Amino acid sequence: MSNNFVNAFKNHLCSTHMVIFLFILHTQVFAQFKKDPAAINRKIAVSENDTQKVELLLTLGKCYLNKDGEFKNDLDNAVLANKQAKVLSDQLNYKLGIGKSILLSAQITREKGRPENGLKIARQALIYTQNNLLLELQAYVYLELSMYGSFEDKIKNKETALRIFKKVGAKEKQADILKQLGELYIIQENQAKGIALLKESLQLYQSIKFPHVQGVYNLLSEGYTQTGNCVESLKYALLAEKTAVKVRDSSLQMSSIYNHVGMAYYSLRQKNTSEEYFYKALEIAKKYKDTEYVRAINENLCTVLISQKKEKDALKVIRDMQLNFPTANIGRQMKENYLLLTVYRKLQNIDKAKIYYNKLVAYYGINAEKEKENRLQILRSYSNYHYQLKNYNDLYRIIRLIDSITTATNNNLMCSENHLTWFQADSSRGDYKNAIKHYQLYKSLSDSVYKGEKSKQINSLQIKFESEKKDKNIDLLTQQDKLQKIQIRNDSIIRYVFIASLIVLTLFILLLYNRFLLKKKTNKQLEIKTQEINEQNELNKKMLIEKEWLLKEIHHRVKNNLQIVISLLNTQSAYLDNEDALLAIQNSQHRMHAMSLIHQKLYQSDNLANIDMSWYIYELISYMKECFDTHEKINFVLNTEKVYLDVAHAVPLGLIINEAVNNAIKYAFPQDTKGDVYIELKNTGENNYKLIIADNGIGVAENFNAAERKSLGVNLMMGLSEQIDGNFEMKNDHGLKIKITFTRNTEFEGTADNSEII
Hints:
Elements: H1 17-26, H2 37-46, H3 51-65, H4 72-92, H5 95-111, H6 115-131, H7 135-145, H8 151-168, H9 171-187, H10 191-207, H11 214-227, H12 230-246, H13 253-267, H14 271-287, H15 291-307, H16 311-324, H17 330-346, H18 350-364, H19 375-388, H20 392-408, H21 412-428, H22 432-450, H23 453-493, H24 499-573, H25 579-604, E1 611-612, H26 613-628, E2 634-640, E3 644-645, H27 647-668, E4 675-685, E5 688-695, H28 712-723, E6 727-732, E7 736-743
Helix pairs in contact: 1-9, 2-3, 3-4, 3-5, 4-5, 5-6, 5-7, 6-7, 7-8, 8-9, 9-10, 9-11, 10-11, 11-12, 11-13, 12-13, 12-23, 13-14, 13-15, 14-15, 15-16, 15-17, 16-17, 17-18, 17-19, 18-19, 19-20, 19-21, 20-21, 21-22, 24-25, 25-26, 25-27, 26-27, 27-28
């Protein structure tokens, strides 16, 4: 199943961690300064040499420091403004100005790419603020110190700043730091603590009626995405979008918000909506020319395209990213390798896929133990790669590791997809007992994510979000109506002067009102019609579900009835001494089993229209090998493509294979001679297929005529070939070779569901 942010967003999901970390940088101390440098310079020019001028110079320096983009000229202007503020503060003995200047110097130095020097200056700022009892500024210094060192150092310095802001009663700054702490814990995959801190931050912002809380909602959506809670993820992503639109946010943050909405929809398998939001996010990121944002969103976009089987489109996105947004970030390069591995694996280009798999293993390790943030995503790519190559030892090692990680983090979405891979692997190996167990776990976990009450909550969220959009439009129309009424009142003041114009205007208003009534009536009729259509659609959907259930029940009962017939024949054979009669009953049992296998597969599958013939032939041959105990005598060679056929074709072909292989086992290798039986089923172009059953045994007599031969098996094979409008050939070719060519009738063709989440 595709998903994998997916799922695999998903999944599918962890590719925005670096974006989140960059966003921390943008939201740190003084990051909200978006004033116009020219306007600040005009104020400085007319101000006197006092503390107000110091503050203006510091504001100007922060403004240049936090301008969008990375330009040397901006940093040079920031240094100049800060230097002037420091000189003036020294002249005035303005201690607060001196402390702020030292802190700004540390920030500028760090922005220039010299973190060691920046840390040294920040420590000087801390000593100065402590010696001069500048308590609030001291908190800002601790925030700057939190930009350096290990995760523990960052947490410790932010918590110290938080305590100081609590002392001075700065609630907005407390909320800011709680938000930053929440981000850090989410990046470290401690989602529970991160979410708790973010909710505390949100509550504090709301208590002071701070309107710009879209960033907190955005981070809550990310936290719930990582825990696999799709409902809460979508809820907070939509709240982030709603709040950002309300406060008219046009910053780079909108790219992150749209990205998270896209991730939430991808987790819910609404891939088209997800793709739309990723393109919206990408447009904003490109506008700001932010390489990290562009790459993070492009990576998510590629995941969606791959899940929609648009591998070539995904490859174009990657090539464009490599050309126009190159990066030296090793993490981003590894993400690119992960995407290329997935694309080439999907395109069946195993040689190229192996190149990128080796690169990932070389960097992250065989168990991705060197990666923390994107570990699940990397492990999922490993498991899909090993499954495609049938490397079962490596595959089972990886999926067990994924299971332990997802279980520990309660990530039901990723856990369910892992059990689906487990089920597919067990089925491929013929371990049906474990396959059933993992399929049941997959369905149970998947249902817990997507069905029942959660689906209602998701629909409710979407309806509420759309309703609020409509309410805004209604408010806008109401405002427009008020303006119109004001205009009418103004016109009425001069009505005696412009009587003729008033008459024309009155007639025009009446005409508009008439049109309004007509339109209102038409809209009412359309609403009624739409409601009728929706009711009919619901009825049709219910009938379709019932029909699918009935069809599965029919297959189940047909399979059971065939098994009963087989058991009856087996019981009857116990009372017969005639060898020919026993042989006839045994042949009938084989034929019944060949048909029973088809109905069993259709009952177990979500696809009720078609059956995978490669699976069916493998199962049928395994059954016959056990029945005749041919392990030491006959070697079976299967060369079958993944061909999907309906029951009308699958049953005749199964009976033909049963008869041909039965004859080969009995007659092709007399006196315990050994040999090979070769079975091939391939698509020879469009809807044309070829079935070959051949052996290297003694063959048939030269004068053998299949049309005149009074053989039940041969007649049955010829009759079944005619039933599917096929061409039957039988000849000696170093043994006996039976060839059947036929064309598939696609009038009622179904679609096989064999997708997977990445």
